[in-house]
Amino acid sequence: MDSCDVERLNELLEQDVELREKIKDQVTDLDKKTRNMVGVLNKIHSTSPESIPGLLDSVRPMLHSCQTTSAAMAALIPPSQFWRWKEMWTNSLRTAIFSAALVEFLATGKLISLPEVCQVLGIKDEWKGRFALPVEDYLHGLISLVNELSRLAVNAVTLGNFEAPIQISIFVKDLFAGFSMLNLKNDTLRRRFDSLKYDLKKIEEVVYDVSLRKLAPPPQGGRQI
Predict the structure, then answer these.
(1) Beta carbons within 8 Å of 82's beta carbon, 6+ residues apart
(2) Global pTM?
(3) SS3 for 44?
């Protein structure tokens, strides 16, 4: 190895270090934003139903601020190097997906789609190969959503919101059925999906108790207990 080769290799190493530090700065920014969102969203467990819309209004600007970080990441990552660097921001991105999904459910009672998450977080199709939202990360975010909703089903009852567990149960059962039809080959994703059975059971126990005590009307199409 001659001196020219050594010099060139050193240059490449320095470029990698410099790029890594720039990406790390953006990941730190994204992580800070997602922590703030989760902190605010955690208040849903002690917030009355009529105050939820105001709480969501305070979270939406944080969600939309992620668009700036997404654009900065896309500008940093060289073409076709997405998979080389993605592990640096995977956890933060999944938390952002979870936050977007929870806001959508609390606002509309519906499941946010993958394209809708991309729109909320400002992730563009033309960035493929540099910065994108993988399907697996989207699914991880939805599993985190179910984890949170199982907790909310319990806490909603303590706040006197007896219909929330029934709505959550219908939503989670539909989502669980969708997951069941997916061919999940990723071991981590498969294990997390299997854990949803425990969340579903927890929600069903709350619904059973609420229905048995006649604290809420039965689910649409259901039989009065």
Answers:
(1) 128, 129, 130, 131, 132
(2) 0.91
(3) helix
- Residue 225, pLDDT above cutoff 50: no
Instruction: Compute the distance between CA of residue 176 and CA of residue 137 in angstroms, rounded to an integer.
Output: 17
pLDDT at 222 over 60: no
Using the structure block, give the residue that is written with the tokens 């519906």: 110
Q: Quick one: residue 45, left, alpha or beta (phi over 0 = left, psi -120 to 50 = alpha)? A: alpha
Cα separation of 58 and 4, whole Å? Answer: 56
**CB 155 within 8 Å of CB 46:** yes
Which among 167, 148, 131 has a CA at the least distance from the CA of 42? 148
- The mean per-residue pLDDT over the stretch 148-167 comes to 94
Please provide the distance, in angstroms rounded to a whole number, between the alpha carbons at the two ends of the chain.
81
Question: Rounded to whole angstroms, how far apart are CA atoms 157 and 215?
Answer: 10
Residue 9 confidence class, pLDDT cut points 50, 70, 90: confident
Identity of residue 107: A
Backbone angles phi, psi at 214, to 5 degrees: 55, 40
